[in-house]
Amino acid sequence: MAGKTPTASLEHLENQRYFPWRGANRLCEGVPLAQIANRFATPTYVYSQSSITAAYREYTRAFRSLPTTICYSVKANSNLEILKLLARLGSGFDIVSGGELYRLRHAGISGQRIVFSGVGKTREEIREALREKIFLFNVESPAELDVLISEAARLGRSAPAAIRINPDVRAGGHAHISTGRHQHKFGMEWADARRSYLAQQDSPWIAWKGISAHIGSQIFNKDAIRRAATRLADFAVSLQRAGIPLTHIDFGGGLGVRYANENPISIADYARTVISVFKPLRCRLLLEPGRSIIGPAGVLLTRVLYTKTNRGKNFIVVDAAMNDFIRPALYGGVHPITPATRSRARKIIRADIVGPVCESGDCLLHDWPIEQVDPEELLMLWGAGAYGFSQASNYNSRPRAAEILVQGKHARLIRKRESRSDLIRGEGLA
Hints:
The protein is an alpha/beta fold. Helix content is about 30%, strand content about 25%. Helix 3 runs parallel beside helix 10.
C-alpha cells in the first residue's frame, strides 16, 4: 500500500528541468501538457527525449575512465521509438525474453549490441538469439547451460556466455525487486558456477566472456553495491587464476531514482564506487540501467472524473487506473500526483487518488496532500517513464493508453491508444 508523503517532498518536482512551469501551465520541454491531453486524450504517457538523452550521457561521462558498455534494460520501457533513440546514442541493450529480442530486431538493432539475461530462457528463445549472433548470454543455471550447449552444437557455432552469480547481498527497494539473495530465483551459487566454468573451459560450443551479477532494483545503499561488486571481482580473479580468460564484468543495473522521499545515489558517485572495485581487473564493464534512464523522463496524464467524501475521507476518482500503472498496487510505490495547471490559493486537502478499476487496490496514492481539484481537471503522475506502460494490462477490458515523445516544441505519437476492437483481436477464432 502506498505510503504518506509530506507536501515538502514535492519541492524537487517543482524544479524539474524537463517539466517546467510556463505561467499557469506545466510543460514537457516546450509543449504544454494540457495541449497534449487535449490532442491525444487521457490517460496518456508523455516522455521527454532530452531527459532520456541527458541520463544516458550522464552514465557515459561518469564511466569514461573505465571501458564500459551501457546496455539499456529493455523491460523498463520497450517502446520502439525509445529503443531507436537509445541506439542512436550508442547504447547496448539487455533483454529477458524473445519478445524483447524481436522488438530490437524490428528496430534495426544488431544482435552484437544485445545481452540476454533471465532465469527462464526457452530453448526456442536461445536458438533465436544464437541465430541473431547476440553479444552475450547471461546463464542462470546448470540446466540452462546444457540447453545453450546443445543449441549451439546444433547450429555449429560457439555461444558467448557468462554465468550470473547470486552474490547473496540484500538490496532493492521492495521484496519483489530484490534479486541478489540466496533465496531468490536468480543466478547460481559460486560453487556451482565455478564447476560450470571449469567443465566447459575447452568446450567448442561455449566461449566464456565474463561473469555477471544483479542484486535488485531501486538500490540506495552504496555499501550493498560495494559488497556485491567486491564479491563479483573476487570471483572473477579466482576464475582468471584457474585459466578462464574473462574479458567482461556485467554488474547489472538497479540504481535507484527519487519518486517522493527517496535519497538516491548520484550516477557519478555510483560510478566512483564501481570503478574503484573493477578497474584492477582490466575487463570491460557492462551495466544494465533502465529505470534511472527512463523513469524520471515520463509522466502519466490523467483527468479527474469525480470527487467525493465518505465519512470525512476524500476521494479523487481519475481516468487512469492500476491497469495503466500498477507500481502502487504491486510494490507500494509512491508516485507524486500534482495538477498540470496552477491557480491561486486553493485549499490543500488529503485524498486517496483512485482509478475506475473494480478493485480496492486500484489506488494510485493514499492520503495524498493535493490542492482541491474539479472534474475534468488535468493531473500528472510523476516518474512514470519506467515500468508504466511496460507493465500495463487490459484488466477490466480497458484499452491501454497512448504514448507521446516530446522533443523541444514537438510532441509526436509513438504508440496509439488501443481501441475496443483491439481488446478482442485474436478471440473467437473457432
